[in-house]
Design a protein that fits this description.
Layout: E1 2-7, E2 10-13, E3 18-26, E4 30-39, E5 46-51, E6 57-59, E7 67-72, E8 77-82, E9 91-100, E10 104-108, E11 112-117
Length: 118
Amino acid sequence: QVQLVESGGGLVQAGGSLRLSCAASGSIAGIGAMGWYRQFPGKQRELVATITSCGSTNYADSVKGRFTISRDNAKNTMYLQMNSLKPEDTAGYYCNAGVLRSTYILYWGKGTQVTVSS
């Protein structure tokens, strides 16, 4: 069994920073691409940022220059450094990862809430 657990969410004032973590545990032979997504109330989940196993990154236009995705392959952990937070960043943040079992399987975490007050 594989689990992804997000942490680091919370309440912060506009202009502040948070660092989210996503830790993978369980029977893991390897991890491919990983990503952060967010979901606003009543909306579909949307891409925030992704990172490949080699460290190539991709960002949504709305977070470019403010958010930084990274990973520590030795710890099976991914991070999202969020700076200059805005009230419109308020959402549930979810991580996913392609985990190698006999083949790559996509797993999701249960999410962490980020609330940015104005």
